[in-house]
């Protein structure tokens, strides 16, 4: 079934860049449609290191503009979604034989000042015997630095942007893949197909290719020329039972020049990553290789008093970073900056393809994308996203801890851990699940531990959730905590819901 009226912007790809562009376009008064063949954030955008950060090691590569922009965005995003992004202190131990202390101190001095840091604490020196942050490390690590960055729920950040785009008039349609596209009569005519075999045609004044690792496949479908080169780099992560009780993360130098992070994860776990390996296979068929798992375990075991072995891994995941190929030899030094291909034909509709980018800079990337497209669409609508709050992020005083404590007090009949989890996931939208007064019987059937029908219904009605995998591994990480029988109950609930609809 064809859309009778052309949309201004059709975005292909439901990752962080795609939803960011659709949101920005809708907020400028443009009609926007985003299509995603799978689930929102089902690719790279849910397989990141979950960091909103400047990229300390990029200073070594002289990418000062990228680091400065990323650090500035860190503060912007923290204010926009304080339930999904929160400050985290990172400890960088001094390792004899690797980067010298003076170099790290200089880098952190730049890191503290070039991005306009406003709310996050500055770097400080930590010493064994004085500071407990070094206690989990081997005795040989006597000194280090503690600095600030932020942690993010990457998949939920994608969903929050999609919700805001919808609130501003955009249409977000999951389960639809682009099969062909061609310019005709000054517009793009795009053919779409759903997983169930339905087809439809959409006309658009501009086409945005934000398909991530599949950006070249979409380009091929349009017949447009490619001017930039995509370089796929695989990054793998492992999750193990929590390695230490303290709240800090660690930035660990490895002998190959890379760094590996240890981040407290989902209360009971530690997240370790990442690797950088050139990739040339199918981005849809990914897993962490045994050699990557061994590598990550080896790096952290060089630092921690209690070693980590592959047998300790309870979950692993891998993602492909669709990086702009800047000609660097090493996969770990390929720029994380982004580049655009703007394909213009006289009298024809524009095609903007996105290469590269990182989670931290998605908002700026979207803003830049609109600055490229607006002249082609005859619009001068100003930018607006810098001070805008994402859905659920309007916490009183931007104080997450106070908000969470207040919600626990307001719902004494519910387990405090459940209320805190819902606060972290949904922010102020928690009321749409719990209402004003909630008791377990008002939340419907408990499908799995602390997962009730009310939350699942909300996910389906408001967040494009269609399967148990969507719910357990992207809208949440409850899949880490549920056993096979509990996960099967969630899957069965979705099966019953589909038959009833």
Structure characterization notes:
- This protein has 501 residues and is of the alpha+beta class.
- It folds into three domains: 7-44 and 156-229 and 336-387, FAD/NAD(P)-binding domain (3-Layer(bba) Sandwich); 86-149 and 231-326, D-Amino Acid Oxidase, Chain A, domain 2, CATH 3.30.9.10; 396-500, Helicase, Ruva Protein, domain 3 (Orthogonal Bundle), CATH 1.10.8.
- The chain is built from 13 helices and 20 strands.
- The chain has helices at residues 16-27, 64-80, 101-113, 154-167, 215-222, 290-301, 362-377, 400-410, 416-426, 431-434, 453-462, 468-474, 484-500, and strands spanning 7-12, 32-36, 51-52, 85-93, 124-127, 143-152, 171-174, 176-184, 187-194, 199-209, 230-241, 249-253, 259-265, 269-273, 277-278, 315-324, 338-343, 351-356, 446-448, 451-452.
- The strands form three sheets. Strands 3, 4, 5, 6, 11, 12, 13, 14, 15 and 16 form a ten-stranded mixed beta sheet that branches. Strands 1, 2, 7, 8, 9, 10, 17 and 18 form an eight-stranded mixed beta sheet that branches. The protein has a two-stranded antiparallel ribbon with strand order 19-20.
- A hairpin with a 5-residue loop joins strand 12 (249-253) and strand 13 (259-265).
- It is globular, with a radius of gyration of 23 Å.
- It starts with 6 loop residues before the first strand and ends with a helix.
- 50% of the residues are buried.
